Amino acid sequence: MRKYSSVLLSVLVAGSLLSACSGNNNGNTAGNKGGDASAAPTNAVTDNTATATDAPVDDITQRKVTIKIHYPTPDLTEIRAQEDDKIKRFQEVYPNVEIVKDDWQYNVSEIGIKMAANEAPTFFNTFATEAKFLVEKGWVADITDLWNKYEFKDQINTVLQNQFIIDGKVFGVTQKGYVTTTMINKKMLDEKGVAIPPMDWTWDDMLNTAKGVADAKKGISGIAPMGKGNESGWNWTNFLFEAGGEIQKIEGGKVIATFNSDAGVKALDFYKKLRWEANAIPQDWALGWGDAVGAFQQSRTAMVMAGSDGVIEQALNQGGLKPEDVLTYPMPAMEKGGKHTGVLGGDYLVINPNATPDEQEMAFRYITFDYFSDKGLEALDAILQQRTTDGKYFIPPLLDYYSADSEFGKKTKAVYDKYTNVYQYSPDIMGLLDAKPEAQYNTQDYYATMSNVIQELFSKKGTDSKSQLEAAAKTVQEKFFDTIKAE
């Protein structure tokens, strides 16, 4: 679950080398931990009926094909210009393809209507939590054959792509991803004489740092956990995972809520400490993604938890902070020696199962058109040059669609190394990151329910964590999980 500002979207599209744009919060389809996804390598999916060198029976480039593409919303003018450039270049290679632009952004409450009315684009965006849901509804195409013929599949970031491989079949293409991290405003810590915590930090380190910086009289908070919208439950889930908890389990073909565990109580009690013991969160705690990130950008909070690149983009290019002032940390471990677990999410594109085979193939070719290409590297270089001219920084995503140690990953790094305005992550962070995918089923509904719990905790002193979680689990179980037949 992730929110994007317009500027962040521009940066992420650039970071993905002008790949097809992701318009909404979390990006595109298919999802998490599906079936045997974690164990299925991207070059060993089922139904491998062809190879990249097979001669086609007939030539798709000689047939007229129309595809309706996922297109950015009107407010994203820079990204629209980039997409228009991609369309032009694509049609130079495939003049037989007519492209229709559709700026509909994936919405779980609208997708069913779109599919029933046959109005969904040929391919569309979605976020990582939606994989099982979309596959079970039959609203995404099985693109295994297209994937098996894709010559660059072995260079794809498997951590991200595996979220779309369910029972050995491929249902989407990764764009980019994130692991939730904590961004720290070092300048604010320095001004208050608060020591920089170790990167291998704990909940106590986070609590003490937040408490040391907070100054309620001046409207300064030590940390800004998101307190409204689904992002509130999403933020808190990192601590559930760090305490060793799970959102749900599959048992006897049923989905069972498990977040009302001892781990959940520990995570909720930690939030109570931040709010009532340390008085370290904003007085107006009802902050969504944009509010919390805006507070960090304006140096009104010393820490915020989110995907790193969007926060840093706003802090450096809108907030006027310097790269050395913004530190990117993994999420804290519950205790020394524990895992620094952060929620893994990402942006994906999926293909409409109602499209014809020719339409599906051209949609796949369009999605991957700039992937692993010299044109993509040239485009990245041009963006970095322009950012240098404009006096702006470029913030690459922590996780991109390609594997960092792939041949293309090395080429991309070589481009980054030519410029001094590319934000550099600490080399120590990658060895500490522990990524955990979001749950398979009804994750957004779970987030929304937990957001109500967080709001009650922040507004009322003395809430009972166990009772809160039991009530929330009962709601999620009866209203959502009991309606699912899990496989």
Overall 3D shape: globular
Share of residues in strands: 5-15%
- Helical amount among residues, as a percent range? 25-40%
- The CATH topology of the largest domain corresponds to D-Maltodextrin-Binding Protein, domain 2
What name goes with the CATH superfamily of the largest domain? Periplasmic binding protein-like II
Which CATH top level class of the largest domain fits? Alpha Beta
The number of distinct structural domains comes to 2
Poorly predicted ranges? 2-53
Amino- and carboxy-terminal Cα gap: 24 Å
Structural class: alpha+beta
Can you count the helices?
Answer: 17
Rg is 22 Å
Described by strand count, sense and barrel closure, the largest sheet is: 5 strands, mixed
Q: What is the overall pLDDT average?
A: 88
CATH architecture of the largest domain: 3-Layer(aba) Sandwich
Q: How many strands appear in the DSSP assignment? A: 14
Provide a descriptive summary of the structure in words:
The chain is α+β, with helices and mostly antiparallel strands. The chain has two domains: 6-178 and 346-416, Periplasmic binding protein-like II (D-Maltodextrin-Binding Protein, domain 2, 3-Layer(aba) Sandwich); 181-343 and 432-483, Periplasmic binding protein-like II (D-Maltodextrin-Binding Protein, domain 2). It has 17 helices and 14 strands. It has helices spanning 6-15, 77-93, 111-116, 131-137, 144-148, 158-161, 186-192, 203-213, 230-242, 262-277, 289-297, 308-317, 357-367, 374-390, 407-416, 443-459, 465-479; strands at 65-70, 97-102, 123-127, 165-166, 169-170, 173-179, 181-185, 248-251, 254-257, 303-306, 326-330, 340-351, 399-400, 433-437. The strands form five sheets. Strands 3, 6, 12, 13 and 14 form a five-stranded mixed sheet that branches. A three-stranded antiparallel sheet has the order 10-7-11. Strands 1-2 form a two-stranded parallel sheet. Strand 8 and strand 9 (254-257) form a beta hairpin. Helix 1 crosses helix 12 (308-317) and helix 11 crosses helix 12 (308-317). Residues 39-54 have a biased composition (Low complexity). InterPro entries: Bact_solute-bd_prot1 (IPR050490), SBP (IPR006059).
